[in-house]
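can u do me a favor
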């Protein structure tokens, strides 16, 4: 049906500065669950995966979600260090969101997150030609809010009572976005953080 978001079983692989984003699959479940705990998972809307079977269920759900391109993030040595996704992808409308993101604490504060964001946003804007990339974050997740702010994304507002946590509590979502005409400045900022030459 026109305008609906379709089920995606993707084969898209993205390469960035010291990272590769590959379609998440069962083979990544053990690596992902190895660094997940309640504190790291805070702000997600699903229960914390406790073992490989739980993470496999999370991976299967991510792969089955319409309009979602779910990735495992691999470092330069091929080690699984996180996951991120495009979701609510609607290329006809020229928009998508980036989220469902979590990383091993060992790579917090490194170039992994900016490298992933650069790869994801370059593909979205430069290959797919979208007009809008959005980020939806639990307002209580100060670390993620700060990370998206550093991208140069514009804070749009807060949706009150928008999120339902795994424990049944309600939370607010803050929205950020980057539009196509803002992308060159955001890309330059990300490249500078990664120590890459302008381009």
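np, heres the sequence
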């Amino acid at each position: 049906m026109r305008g609906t978001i379709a089920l995606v079983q993707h084969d898209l692989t993205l390469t960035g500065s010291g990272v590769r984003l590959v379609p998440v699959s069962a083979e990544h479940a053990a690596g992902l669950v190895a660094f997940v705990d309640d504190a790291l998972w805070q702000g997600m809307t699903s229960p914390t995966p406790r073992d490989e079977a739980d993470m496999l269920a999370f991976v299967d759900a991510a792969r089955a979600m319409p309009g979602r391109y779910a990735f495992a993030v691999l470092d330069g040595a091929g080690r699984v260090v996180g996951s991120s996704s495009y979701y609510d992808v609607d290329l006809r409308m020229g928009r998508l969101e980036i989220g469902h993101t979590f990383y091993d604490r060992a790579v917090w504060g490194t170039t992994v997150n900016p490298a992933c964001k650069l790869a994801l946003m370059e593909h979205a804007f430069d290959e797919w030609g979208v007009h809008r990339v959005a980020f939806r974050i639990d307002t209580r997740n100060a670390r993620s809010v700060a990370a998206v702010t550093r991208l140069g994304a514009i804070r749009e507002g807060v949706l009150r009572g928008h999120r339902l946590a795994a424990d049944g509590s309600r939370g607010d979502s803050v929205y950020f976005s980057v539009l196509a005409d803002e992308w060159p400045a955001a890309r330059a900022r990300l490249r500078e953080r990664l120590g890459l030459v302008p381009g």
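DSSP finds six helices and eight strands in the chain. hope that helps!!
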